[in-house]
Design a protein that fits this description.
heterodimer; A: mainly alpha; Four Helix Bundle (Hemerythrin (Met), subunit A); 6 helices; elongated; B: mainly alpha; 2 domains
Chain lengths: 208, 111
């Protein structure tokens, strides 16, 4: 076992994330976890769809008056772009360019933080309107669904930042390459969930 | 757990070849990204244009499905070899997801 074995671009494997047994296991286990995450979000989406616009009689909040598309559009663009920047990070990992990878991951983190800032602003705005977590079945299911996604963004950002800090002086090894790879898979999965959120919650909400 | 791997130093020709292939793959990733941005723009402008909801909803759901497939198969590399288990896990999850949504909507519709 040699964590510190140094590679050159010529000796760096073409698939560094899967060239050790541990890497292969991480890869497989992480995809199993993503299958489980799909089920988690499915239950929240199904709950939201069932409870959408339902609440106490005379409730003034409904999806087509509450949501504002320009804000959601900006958030979508931020998260979509951050998905591309993490693809760039993995491209540099395969090229054995550590500095390049860290730079693109830093850009990904900045975009993710901007997304999170907009989401906090949005939730804060709703709460000020009186649309609090306990206001109705609709509000509870909305905040649980979108909030769980927001929590995933927080975890993803924390994970990527920790990886970047922990390995900043270590450089690449076949020990940390699978960690970077799974973190980037997680980040893409967050974007996959967001595609459904902006379509099912916001766009279909505005349509009515 | 083993971290050992056979160290294999590529020849200059092989190295250059793989590097070029990675560059091409990256270029197709950027194309994928452009398509995804385009699909998002269509979805948002269809809603902003205020057409009938029976017309818009199926279209934006279809656009979302295409975008997710692009994300999974290109950004998350599911189109590459050695991804049959990931595909199995994900499709199994997606099947349960579909059942959940169908069940909940049926219950609400029944009320």
């Amino acid at each position: 076992m040699d964590f510190n074995k140094k590679y050159t671009p010529q000796s760096w494997p073409d698939h560094p994330e899967q060239s050790t047994l541990e890497g292969k296991n991480k890869f497989l286990g992480f995809w199993l976890f993503l299958g489980g995450e799909t089920v988690l979000f499915a239950s929240l989406f199904a709950t939201y769809l069932a409870l959408k616009n339902k609440g106490p009689s005379g409730m003034e909040f409904s999806t087509n008056t509450l949501f504002e598309l320009p804000l959601v559009f900006v958030m979508t663009m931020l998260l979509l772009t951050s998905s591309l920047t993490s693809v760039y990070a993995m491209y540099h990992m395969k090229n054995h360019n550590f500095r390049g990878m860290q730079t693109w991951l830093a850009i990904t983190v900045i975009l993710g933080l901007a997304f999170l800032g907009f989401e906090i602003y949005e939730f804060n705005h709703y709460v000020h309107l009186g649309f609090t977590y306990g206001q109705s079945a609709f509000s509870s299911s909305f905040f649980t669904l979108v909030g769980t996604h927001g929590l995933h963004v927080v975890i993803g950002l924390g994970w990527i930042i920790l990886l970047m800090v922990r390995n900043a002086k270590r450089g690449f090894s076949l020990y940390n390459a699978p960690k970077y790879y799974t973190a980037s898979l997680y980040w893409h999965f967050i974007d996959v969930v967001w595609v459904f959120i902006f379509t099912v919650v916001y766009l279909m909400g505005v349509v009515g | 757990m083993s971290h050992d791997a056979q160290v294999y130093v590529k020849s200059q020709t092989e190295f250059e070849y793989l590097k070029r292939k990675r560059k091409q793959a990256m270029r197709s990733q950027v194309t994928t990204f452009a398509i995804m941005i385009f699909l998002t723009l269509i979805a948002f402008s269809a809603v902003a244009a205020d057409f009938s909801k029976y017309y818009i909803v199926p279209i934006i759901l279809l656009l979302a499905a295409i975008q997710v497939v692009l994300q999974l198969y290109y950004f998350m590399h599911m189109s590459e070899k050695n991804h049959s288990f990931p595909a199995f896990f994900l499709y199994f999850g997606a099947m349960i997801a579909f059942t959940f949504v169908l069940t909940f909507l049926t219950i609400v519709w029944w009320q």
